[in-house]
Amino acid sequence: xxxxxxxxxxxxxxxxxxxxxxxxxxxxxxxxxxxxxxxxxxxxxxxxxxxxxxxxxxxxxxxxxxxxxxxxxxxxxxxxxxxxxxxxxxxxxxxxxxxxxxxxxxxxxxxxxxxxxxxxxxxxxxxxxxxxxxxxxxxxxxxxxxxxxxxxxxxxxxxxxxxxxxxxxxxxxxxxxxxxxxxxxxxxxxxxxxxxxxxxxxxxxxxxxxxxxxxxxxxxxxxxxxxxxxxxxxxxxxxxxxxxxxxxxxxxxxxxxxxxxxxxxxxxx
Length: 269
Fold this sequence. Notes:
Layout: H1 8-27, H2 33-60, H3 63-81, E1 87-88, H4 92-115, H5 124-155, H6 157-165, H7 170-195, H8 203-210, H9 215-248, E2 261-262
Antiparallel strand pairs: 1-2
Helix pairs in contact: 1-2, 3-4, 3-5, 4-5, 4-9, 5-7, 5-9, 6-7, 7-9, 8-9
């Protein structure tokens, strides 16, 4: 089966659906039409840009072209992971980048080298989409984990400081907020895994089926991707929460609550 090519007219029909959303926003006075228009414009520009970039990368097919693009994708994900929440701390951006980079690249390496076993490993048709899917979900887990950790510590400040005053170690005082943060970061992936194939058909599986791949082969690939995403999301969330914990608790077992500041009053990190 040949994949149906889409014309500009076909894209125009899809654009009308966004116009409908804008009309609903105006009618219901949601004040979302500008944000919707900006989001739609960014979607088009970003996807067209990556389309041209990937076309160029696929034509060269060299590690020194693929690797910098993967690194840039990871940095962007790391920066985006540090933007969530009303509170922040000095070093949050670095913690987000490190936790996303280590977990995503480690799990992607397992997928590329041990599971799919492509040769060469930097084959852009596999390496870039797989890392991209892993990054997107790990980003969500890391950002939610850091935000929840900060919120829990802020809300529980009295109890945390009381525990420390009574002789508890910094980990004993922080372990319950840390558990809640890890749960929050992993929940989106767990919810996605619970309904995959029943309520939703993931993008990779759908793309392979549309391209003529056997549905069973597409399912096998999707199972691998889902497990890679789950592993990276868990590792990234745990890493981010632990890095946050080390930032706001001193080695002398003191809670450095003053480091948690309102985002709009914080200095550039």
